[in-house]
Specification:
eight-stranded mixed beta sheet, globular, alpha+beta, single chain, Protein Transport Mog1p, Chain A
Amino acid sequence: MVAAKSLLAAALIGLLWASAALADAPTVRISSADQAIAKAALLRRSDFGAGWLGGPIKTSPLSSPNCPGFDPKESDLVVSGHADARYRFQQGGVELDQDVQVLESQASVLTDFARTISPQLANCLAYQLGKLPNVVRASVTRVPFPPTGAVSAVYRAEIAVKTARGQGSLLSDYVFFGEGRVEYEFTVIAPVGARDQLAQFEVGLAQILLRRAGATPA
């Protein structure tokens, strides 16, 4: 399934929205102090095992997808820090893309999650995935995840794709959590054979980030 992943990786990156980017665009007023917080909240190469490559990348503009029936209000929320990173484990056909946003208040983070984490979000992700080239079908459901930070949610996409060898399958997990003024999101694209390992992998990375932010015990 590594070949199937390679056909979709670039297109799937366009779906890596943190929750503040999942509706009408938030107000962006970057400050140097909060930008430093966002960069410090990125995963590091040392957080991964052997064989992983990657690091910080240029951020994409915070814009809203066109999803029927899903348009939660976001323009009253202010993003003051924004940073992205990308890591790949080529041998296993796994890619992780991270987006961090710093909002002006903890209340803004809670409001954002309350507005966006809904059945309509799953439908929106499936709708956008279904529009990508080579995607035969995609379904997205919310999956169980241990409480992480102040708020959290994880959605899993199961994607059937056309490949040169026929039809293949991929998984794409969307991990959202927030703590204090920081919203964390990372998307993991992996072969279906990695299904049983994904949750443990994702929980471990989330705990690293929260410990680094001083939100959980060491």
